[in-house]
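From: lab user (bench 3)
To: helpdesk
Subject: output format question, protein + guanosine-5'-triphosphate

Hello, I'm new to running complex predictions and I'm not sure whether the block I got back is the full result or only part of it. Here's what I submitted:
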Amino acid sequence: MNIFEDNINLILYVMSLSAYDQVLFEDISVKCYDETFSVFDDLTQNRIFYNTDFVVFFNKVDVFDVKIGAVPFTTCVPSFNTEWAHNRKKIVGYVRTKFETLFKQNTEAMHRKPTKSIFRNTNSPPPQRDVFFHVTCATDTRRMQQVINDVQFGIVRRQLQMAHLA
Ligand SMILES: Nc1nc2c(ncn2[C@@H]2O[C@H](COP(=O)(O)OP(=O)(O)OP(=O)(O)O)[C@@H](O)[C@H]2O)c(=O)[nH]1
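Helpdesk reply: Thanks, we reran it on our side. This is the complete output you should expect:
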């Protein structure tokens, strides 16, 4: 990954909620969900993003809703409670917890081990960042506009808070 800026405020991370039973086109030995968690893990470990907020979109929920009626989530996670294997709320909760756990672990690791910024010759201050989640259907443009507005509002509010103006 090549990054030439160190003042990135926000990363929009889009994952396909409906891909729980799919594997990568380029490598059929890798499950799409494993890849999405792994890339998020890499990004949130990267010290360049020590002050960067993340917004995770659980996208393609419309496709997910149709699929989950027929294909249980245990296809992806065999240990998942079979009673909830068709339950969107429980599944989204599970996926969200996975993302939150990675984010928390990696943020705490940055707190424990401050290192020199690669851009400035100073120690990085403790990370001040957060993660937010939205369940989306990108093709529903009206609803997406509301989500984007919420995200923009969140960015402005957070910048004001960091400047102690809100
Ligand atoms: N039904 C539905 N289609 C979507 C949604 N988001 C994206 N798509 C469609 O999925 C296709 C692939 O979208 P891209 O933006 O190219 O995403 P990609 O990551 O390159 O491709 P995929 O791995 O297939 O998602 C396009 O036809 C999009 O219109 C969604 O939330 N619901």
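A quick orientation on your result: Residues 36 and 64 are 16 Å apart (CA to CA). Let us know if anything else is unclear.
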